Amino acid sequence: MPRTRHLGRGLPECEVCRPDEYREPVNQHVPEQHLRLSTALHEIAVSSNKLKTQRSESYAGLSFFIHPHLTSTTMPSTSFCLSIALLLALGSAAVNAQTVGAAAPTTEANPVLVKGATLEVRKSDLELEKKNLPPEQRLEMATNLPRVQRTLERLFLNKILLADARKAGFDKDPAVVAELEYTLNQKLASLYANQLSAKIQVPDLEPALKEQYKLEVATLVEPERVHAAHILITAKKRTKEEALRRAEEVRAKAAAGADFKQLAKEYSEDQSAQRNDGDLGFFPFEQMVPEFAKAAFAMTTPGQISPVVETDFGFHIIKYIERRAARTPPYEELRSKLLEEKDREYRAAQLRNTFNQMMENEQPKANMDEVNKLMSNPTSQAMREWNEKIRKEIQGQSQSPKRP
Which residue among 259, 320, 330, 334 sits deepest, i.e. has the most Cβ atoms within 10 Å of its Cβ? Predict the structure, then answer.
């Protein structure tokens, strides 16, 4: 008789995790000569910006959440590697019988955004991509033309890969079909968990929230913050001496009264400069690397330009804008954020109860004889080597530089 262990009772409490930040894939940019997008993209981005931003149908804290009681893994984000993107694209063949290259009729509601010799990307493709992004990134997709361009290029490349994969019979491969089914099952479970969360009736949390604010007000003090902008000159494309010389030249222009925003757009090698004109907003001392923070906090006159500051990122020219003294934010200022946190906590607690009840109803039992056969038995030497590897990785992560 196989040994069993009851899994339904005494389940450990678990937190409903929020998904990691979505990041665009690295090194997936198609060379510009392969796909030149016309100025119509600008019109698309502008018109998209006029659309009303809608909240995601799924609860923000659970967008791609798979509860550990349902499965041992979580859904990957929409920006996972091209191989998984291809698998998901192939999966559409199972639910959509459209033939490769068959184009839907062009309509004003679903125009063609990118057209190749046999393939095309439509507005509906881009909208589906945006739907799977968190709200703040959806807004960026409506205002950041380079981001839209890169996304369209990636979507078109996926279309090429999908077409070639189907021609090669890749979607008939048993291993691919099995992986597609696995991915589909996780997605269905995730969407259902989202739906359960959305249906939870949340009571009035404000009275408890006000009491919490009174009790914790002393811990809510915000440190002193400085509002500054910067221009970054790196030594990636030049020697360190050339970078310093260039930084000094730019600094001289700024000190002479040149428009700092325009200088940032023209000279800064901080990737965010084209979007924010070098403006870093308000930040506490600890948020920046020490050299940068010391220079920024040492200034006191609005418009003051710092000497060239060197950090691990390169050479910075910093413009001081204003300062915000340490303070305790009033309740009304924090109300929205605190209510959102309380709402998320309440839903997470209710979902834990729901998931636990589901497990109780199923009465799952683990066949520990078979489970133990899956466990490896590393030697003590191998275990020491593994632990040392993990320790070095953790140490390396803790030493990663702060943003400038």
Answer: 320
